[in-house]
Amino acid sequence: MERHINTIGILTSGGDAPGMNAAIRAVTRSARYNNINVVGVMRGYQGLIDKEFVKFTSSSVSNTIQRGGTILKTARSKAFMTEEGRKQAYANMVEAGIDALIVIGGNGSLTGAQLFAREYDIPIIGLPGTIDNDLYGTDSTIGYDSALNTIVECVDKIRDTANSHDRIFFIEVMGRDAGFLAQNSAIASGAEAAIIPESETDVDQLADFIERGKRKSKNSAIVLVSEAQKDGVGGAFYYAERVKKEYPQFDARVTILGHLQRGGTPSAYDRILASRMGYAAIEALLEGQRNVMVGIKNDEIVYVPISRAVKMNKPINQELITVLNVLSI
Length: 329
Ligand code: F6P
Known about the structure:
- By secondary structure, the chain is of the alpha/beta class.
- It folds into two domains: 183 residues, Rossmann fold; 118 residues, Phosphofructokinase domain (Rossmann fold), CATH 3.40.50.460.
- Helix content is 42%, strand content 18%.
- The protein has eleven helices and eleven strands.
- Strands 3-2-1-4-5-10-11 form a seven-stranded mixed beta sheet, sandwiched between helices.
- Strand 1, helix 1 and strand 2 form a beta-alpha-beta unit.
- The protein is elongated and about 65 Å long.
- The site of 6-O-phosphono-beta-D-fructofuranose has 11 residues, from loops.
């Protein structure tokens, strides 16, 4: 039987991402348009446990679409990982009259949502909010495009000094277990190579890149390195150290871009994506859908079971790897 949704709770969880505010705004406004009450839950799942609830109206989200970060704040709640924590969260939801949840976050946050929905039979709709772009079933996640643009802006600057000094720069970018940011920012910035966890394990990506570079007799180079490590191996410092030992003729430097990739104003693409996804989340609830993540495929909104979105490894399009290799001659 379909449950009538009177009040929804909305929260952001895990690492923040540019465009989360645009998503909060879209969910809030679409819900109010349909006469659904909105409760803003502060600090992710931790706010459910601590009863940090704020009544949200249309004007609560005014003047937020252009702001980075999340007005709801975010956290990685350890307490919510325990049965007791989730029990408390559910009791607080019932007390506040919250019938359904909208969760905006990445892999870990949506995994938590799936568990909570199963344990307490709560309708939950997930929105993919992460710069990592590592959720299966969606071409893009909210924040990914903005982070890419930020990285490219930084790489353009580093390129100037790399050129002047004839140096190799290893620039480390985020993407906990995924290489989307590294691969695509490498293409967008005209870098010489990207080192990503999705590449074949038996290929030595460093040796491969140096070999290609020699053939091209380039003096300076930019290599985008994903922060992801395999068996404790990886990251920009690891590769720079190897260059010092194995190819001492090169002068290597490291830049770790770090959290600046997560800040800043969201791109137009992310604002539109977040707006469409937020609207679609409320549509899904009204249609009686539950425990799905809103995704985008070929510019069409799709709904993916959360269980698939978080469990399947999203593959990197091999064509991107070829494009980078060919264009960096
Ligand atoms: O998941 C988003 C992300 O930015 C990852 O790319 C990164 O590994 C992680 O979060 C960093 O998390 P924190 O800000 O908690 O250190």
